[in-house]
Write a structure and sequence with these properties.
Oligomer: single chain
Largest sheet: 4 strands, mixed
Number of domains: 1
Shape: globular
Strand order of the largest sheet: 2-1-3-4
Order of helices and strands: EHEHEEHH
CATH topology: Glutaredoxin
Radius of gyration: 14 Å
Helix content: 25-40%
């Protein structure tokens, strides 16, 4: 049983150049003091294929926190309103209840 603080999982945002929801998602994460990796699917068709394979969606943004597919901006905000986003971002997502 290891109870030491785990490092926050990496955040990956699949986005395109002109995408208001991508901007909104990044502004929200910035407001939370988060860092992320942005993957531009409009510049790299292989990354787009990868995103669709992972997310089963073609819309952007598609937001991943570690292995968890959060979804788009609206999905992320719904998760946030439910109080489930910040624990996920902090690496405290329920890995089986305590």
């Amino acid at each position: 049983m290891n109870h030491h603080a785990s490092s926050p999982p990496p955040i990956v945002i699949y986005s395109t150049a002109i995408c208001p929801y991508c901007v909104a998602a990044k502004n929200f994460l910035k407001s939370q003091g988060r860092e992320w990796t942005e993957v531009r699917v409009d510049l790299d068709p292989a990354e787009r294929d990868k995103m669709v394979g992972l997310a089963r969606r073609t819309s952007v943004p598609q937001i991943f926190v570690g292995d968890v597919h959060v979804g788009g901006y609206d999905d992320m905000m719904a998760l946030h309103r439910a109080g489930a986003l910040l624990p996920l971002l902090d690496g405290q997502a329920a890995e089986g209840s305590a």
